[in-house]
């Protein structure tokens, strides 16, 4: 009751009330900001990981010493390895992709139609055309952003130019060939949608002069985090000399940078909550100074030092608890509507926030991790409680005689 009365400031205590209000707002914004930023960074990492692993495979097997001309048999053996979902032989090379609106570099990958249908990011996101009869045709499938850049649609022809062409007496001539577009897909990652070109495996072998051989085999695991334990089984299951690398090795720099950035952001944004907790200390110290007369009277009426300390701990902790709860609610609401908020701000400012060309993704993701959210809430509560201890201890140590000497 006493703590509640101290929180409801009278006219002459307005300044203390303002400091308490700033402390509340600071903790609320600090907690909300931490939750939102951590959720967005988790979502960003998760979306990138799902896109990268959804099209590139969790492990890559490449031949050693001899061409991979037995890829069908190797892929069949790898399909039987525990933990392998499926193995996808492919032929890969770079080419210049040209259309009516320009020419751009592309990564051309020859795959079997049955394997392409097992890639949900491609098979389930065909925006125009179809993958039916992909193996029997000499057509290609491209991403939406590449189609926009080239100015083509389904049925139009694009030209692929590869530097690895025919060998003539005058040297190697570039290989130039036109292919009709049979499907346009949208993965949702701008880099992939503007780069990848899929063609039938046999056509890819002919185009890149790899008749009867494959560049490598992409291995998709049921558990991407278990690739380290699977390496020996995969190398043994291949039945031939091969070099095996996993997604963590191929993307170690990228994901390490994301992890470092995430940890640094957490430490920096924690300072917001810390500053708000310091505001609680200053506000509570001023309240103790102002309530010296009340404390002295309570002590003379029989209140113990522990009771006085509890009054001021409850007063300060109430600000932290309510601010933390409000911050959690605000952070949760923003995370659930982060893409809508981004679109609204983009419309309001007439600028493009979270550009797909810069951040690779076409939408702003947010993934609230339960453990992280609980950590943020508990940290804010602990800092708020610790901030009240010193002013409450000062209040409990106040000597009633000194406080009332000049009354």
For the sheet with most strands, the description reads: 6 strands, mixed, barrel
Low-confidence stretches: none
Give the mean pLDDT: 81
- The tally of helices reads 17
The coarse overall form would be: elongated
Give the SSE order as H and E letters: HHEHEEHHEEHEEHEHEHEHHHHHHHH
Fraction of residues in β-strands: 15-25%
Tally of DSSP β-strands: 10
Task: Supply the number of structural domains.
Answer: 2
Helix content: 55-70%
Please provide a written account of the structure.
With 407 residues, this protein is α+β, with helices and mostly antiparallel strands. The protein folds into 2 domains: 2-50 and 254-404, no CATH class; 66-240, no CATH class. 56% of the residues lie in helices and 20% in strands. It has helices at 2-7, 14-56, 71-79, 113-116, 120-123, 144-150, 190-193, 201-207, 227-238, 247-250, 252-290, 292-300, 305-336, 338-349, 356-359, 370-396, 400-404, and strands at 59-63, 84-99, 102-111, 126-129, 140-143, 157-168, 171-185, 196-200, 216-221, 242-246. It has a 6-stranded mixed beta barrel. Strand 6 and strand 7 form a beta hairpin. Helix 2 packs antiparallel against helix 11 (252-290), helix 2 runs antiparallel to helix 16 (370-396) and helix 11 packs antiparallel against helix 13.
């Amino acid at each position: 009751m006493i703590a509640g009365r101290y929180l409801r400031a009278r006219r002459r205590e307005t300044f203390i009330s303002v400091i308490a209000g700033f402390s509340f707002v600071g903790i609320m914004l600090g907690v909300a900001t931490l939750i939102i930023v951590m959720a967005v960074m988790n979502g960003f990492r998760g979306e990138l990981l799902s896109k990268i692993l959804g099209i590139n495979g969790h492990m890559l097997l490449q031949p050693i010493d001899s061409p991979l001309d037995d890829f069908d048999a190797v892929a069949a053996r790898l399909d039987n390895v525990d933990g392998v979902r499926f193995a996808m032989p492919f032929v890969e090379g770079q080419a210049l992709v040209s259309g009516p609106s320009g020419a751009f570099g592309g990564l051309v990958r020859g795959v079997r139609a049955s394997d392409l249908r097992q890639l949900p990011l491609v098979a389930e996101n065909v925006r125009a055309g179809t993958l039916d009869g992909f193996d029997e045709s000499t057509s290609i499938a491209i991403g939406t952003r590449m189609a926009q850049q080239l100015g083509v649609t389904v049925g139009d022809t694009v030209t692929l130019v590869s530097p690895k062409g025919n060998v003539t007496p005058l040297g190697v001539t570039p290989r130039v060939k036109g292919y009709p577009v049979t499907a346009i897909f949208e993965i949702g990652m701008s880099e992939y949608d503007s780069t990848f070109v899929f063609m039938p495996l046999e056509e890819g072998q002919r185009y890149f002069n790899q008749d009867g051989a494959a560049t490598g085999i992409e291995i998709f695991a049921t558990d991407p985090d278990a690739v380290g334990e699977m390496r020996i089984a995969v190398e043994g299951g291949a039945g031939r000399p091969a070099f095996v690398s996993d997604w963590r090795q191929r993307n170690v720099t990228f994901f390490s940078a994301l992890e470092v950035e995430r940890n640094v952001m957490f430490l920096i944004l924690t300072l917001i909550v810390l500053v708000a907790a310091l505001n609680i200390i200053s506000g509570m110290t001023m309240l103790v100074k102002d309530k010296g007369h009340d404390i002295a009277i309570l002590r003379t009426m029989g209140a113990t030092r522990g009771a006085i300390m509890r009054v001021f701990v409850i007063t300060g902790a109430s600000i932290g608890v309510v601010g933390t709860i409000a911050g959690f609610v605000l952070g949760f609401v923003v995370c659930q509507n982060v893409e809508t908020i981004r679109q609204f701000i983009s419309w309001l400012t007439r600028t493009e926030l979270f550009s797909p060309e810069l951040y690779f993704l076409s939408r702003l993701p947010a993934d609230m991790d339960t453990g992280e959210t609980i950590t943020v809430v508990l940290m804010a509560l602990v800092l708020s409680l610790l901030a009240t201890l010193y002013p409450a201890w000062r209040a409990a140590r106040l000597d009633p005689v000194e406080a009332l000497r000049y009354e």
